[in-house]
Amino acid sequence: MSLVDTHAHLASSRLRDDLDEVITRSREADLCRIITIACDLEDSVTNLELAERFDIVSPTVGIHPLYVHEIESDEWEKELQELGQRPGVCAIAEIGLDYFHPPGDGSSEEEWRNLQRDVFEKQLQIAIDLDLPAVIHQRNSAADVTAVLRNFPKARAVLHCFTGTMYEAEQGLELGHMLSFPGIITFKNAVEVQEVAAQTPLERIMVETDCPYLAPVPFRGKRCEPAYVKHTAEQLARLRGLNSEEVAEATTSNATRFFGEPS
Questions:
Q1: Please, are residues 160 and 209 in contact by the beta-carbon 8 Å criterion?
Q2: 161 with 196: CB under 8 angstroms?
Q3: Based on the structure, what is the number of domains in the chain?
């Protein structure tokens, strides 16, 4: 059952001390690819280095909405565009809007959201210019994310760690985008998102861990790692009345179509 973890933060300090073992366990769990996600330009550079170390890893570059206030250079767009042109880069990620956390720079809520939106829109344009897909963060911000995506019809996006409503899913699907489901679908109380995962067309679904966060059952509460994506895929199969091989084949094919072939 060959799988792709489409969203893992391998640059995280929580994985640094035993990353070689994490990758080994991923291979043993039959993962064929791990998409490693950036939160800032430093992560972006680290992701490129990790992709050189591990052939199973595909790098992304980008600035997470919770880190937009840490941008120091007026040349950040140029820097990101240059990073995005490096061999193997498969997406601009992760980008979007986060209305759950308070402003990271002590600014007003309005100023914080405006800054996030400005950086989000500029990164979407970079993704379009480089013909790369974008991985979207939309915590408590689905309506505004949809509004932004409507203004960028050439963008190809996945709504990562999708835990929203069926209506929110339909909004993204109607724009031609993908949904990626995390280990949350294994939680007993996640009934609504389980229904979304069961009803979304299979050709529009991917699976992820968002590691080191959101470990699925039976590892809930522990540090997550890419090998655990198989538990999410198995739950997706149960929700849809399919066998695990069918889900693995479909989600891996979807990931290849979205991110491109690994370099």
A1: no
A2: no
A3: 1
What CATH number has the domain bearing residue 180?
3.20.20.140
What's the CA gap between 256 and 263, in Å, rounded? Answer: 11
Q: Identify whether the C-beta of residue 99 lies closer than 8 Å to the C-beta of residue 138.
A: no
- With CA atoms as reference, report the closest residue to 195 among 165, 174, 175, 232: 165
Strand, coil or helix: what is 36?
strand
pLDDT value, residue 1: 65
DSSP states along 95-158: EEEE-SSPPTTS--HHHHHHHHHHHHHHHHHHHHHTT--EEEEEET-HHHHHHHHHT-TT--EE
The DSSP call for residue 211 is: B
**What are the tens digits of pLDDT across the range 126-157?**
999 999 999 999 999 999 999 999 999 999 99
- 183 has pLDDT over 90: yes
Look up residue 225 and give its two tokens: 């790692």
Could you give the C-alpha distances from 189 to 91, 159, 164, 195, 254, in angstroms and in order? 32, 21, 14, 12, 27
Tokens of 29: 């769990």
SS3 2: coil
Nearest to 139 by CA among 191, 109, 100, 85: 100
> How many beta carbons lie within 10 A of that of residue 210, not counting itself?
22
Q: What secondary structure does DSSP assign to 151-205, as a single string?
A: T-TT--EEE-S----HHHHHHHHHTT-EEEE-GGGGSTT-HHHHHHHHHS-GGGE
Q: For the whole prediction, is pTM greater than 0.85?
A: yes
**Residue at token pair 């109607």:** 174
User: 248: domain range?
Assistant: 3-259
